[in-house]
Fold these 2 entries.
Entry 1:
Amino acid sequence: MTAPAVSVLMPCYNAARYLPAAAGSVLSQTLTDFEVVAVDDGSTDGTKALLDGYAAKDPRVRVISRPNTGIVGALNDGLEQCRAPLVARMDADDVCHPDRLRRQVAFLRDNPECVAVGTFAVLFGAGGRVLDLQGEVTAHKDIVARVRRGAGGALLHASAMFRQDALRAVGGYRKEFAWVEDLDLYLRLADHGTFANLPRYFYGYRKHPGAVCRIRRTEQTARKERALAEDFARSGRSRPPALSREDRYRPADPALARDRQIVGLLARGAPRRAVVSAAKGVLRTPLRRAAWDVLALVSCRRPPAPHKVADLLDGPQLALPLAIAPATVGGNR
């Protein structure tokens, strides 16, 4: 059997409420040469039945069902089953733009030194309200500088596409760094190639009130410190000071800071002001495609139905409109 161009690795845990939107956004990609490796991590809410239904209808979907071990075990078991040279992460409660995979594949083809490429993201709440944007830096030097100061989110893990040979070269994910598995992975991958972010809002990341960063903060902080200490001991580099929360999310480009301010207006219930500000941004930099993304996002007055959550807006510049299933806590966060 010929290997696909991309393996989409999607761990799933009690994500039935959000899975139709996530799976629909993946199966609607403009790049069609991919497989979905969906790992059911011992779900009890009907996730497995949904996954089996997708697999019955689409031969690109392969389902792995196993007892619950948590995110790291699910990722490693799924990685073992990935057949493509490129592995794209996807969370079972998020959505992605239909052109996401095609753009990331093209970037990695044109940049053979790159081992991981992410995208900017729209952050939205469990109930669907747009909260913020994430996307501070695009270049390797800026990403790796933030990673080495503890900011694993400089390359949003769920949006990333990796070279599988690089993932295997570093041994995949390590169980002892669960909850900071992305940071630990990046610290080891940085010795094997470069990182990048596409400066487009191609991913929709759902934030939950019961996310790991809230309920496991103490353990997460301790494991982050251990991963950073191990990295600096291994490399011999002197350790820079940790980033403050403000600096961690401070965009390197003033245009990205303006994007966040515009979406902040929308989040605070001022959609008209958001649209006016976004339109001014497009007039200021008409060739900047992310500016069009933001205008399309804030102009979307009525989100599409949940099963059309990643449908494109009309127009030459495309954004990710978000609609949203009812709120429950799900997914491996």
Entry 2:
Amino acid sequence: MNSWHSFLHQQGASIVEQSTISFGEKPGDYPGLESKTTITPLIHLGLLSVKGADSARFLQGQVTCDVQQLSLGHSLIGARCNLKGRALADFLLCQPSEDQLLLVMNHRLVQQNIDELSKYSAFFKTQLLDASKDYQLIGICGEEAETLANNIPASYHYPLRDGRQLLIVPTEDAPSVWKELSASAIPTGNEFWHLQDIRAGLGHVQTETVAMFIPQMLNLQAIEGISFKKGCYTGQEVVARMKYLGKLKRRMYRMTTDSPLLPAPGTPCYLPTQKQSIGNIVQAANVDNNHQELLVVLTDEASKSDTLIIGEAPAQAVKQQILPYDID
């Protein structure tokens, strides 16, 4: 347990496997929290730092978003792919200073991406580092989220598409920032944050789903996570072909169900009348004591079904929900 986790434990948090945190809230509390301002330590996320004079030029050839469009204080959604166009990680790209870029991604994927990117970074004036110990990530939800974030000078502050706010705080300042925020907001665990991600239609690559989806399956084209005007990058040929020449056979949908089991990322899905998988779970979260919301990549046919078999569970009723963006 690191110093930040120890501090959070003193504040009443329970932490499991260094990636799941709660403050005693249960799924039955979530409906009541929707109308409150909440804060969440995003311990499931980490930071990959790309620092040096060539950082933007280097990253431009490695990711789906147009790094040249990034500016100080702003962020971009993007993904990094393999040669087959499969997403190895998705991220929020931030620029805290002129010569440094930070990629916010699943913390278990940071070192793997550093190792793979290092094969190419040797030809550029840039340095790849795991900055997860240097900064802590705090999320804010609710109507007062922007006001609270603006009142924290000791952090980098990035608004998300749905109004939530992301703070990147130097580790030495994180305890004082947390105490200041908790005076005006309710501490909550990261399952509540995952639920907000699902409702925002933000599907994330996790260890179980590395190289499972092409970016368009995660709807990245609908949230400006793919630039079709920039130059080449690893996997670009496949991603571009899917837009201009191919037909996307699977895409991500938002579903609700009342199953008592929370399916793991990557869990295969089936139609009751077929034995072949027709999709996979991206992520899932409880809504209350009786319902779940899912982001799931499905075929068009499967998305119209009101019944799915998820993993080895019995067939269950599902209902498609709207996403907060249009899908091409």
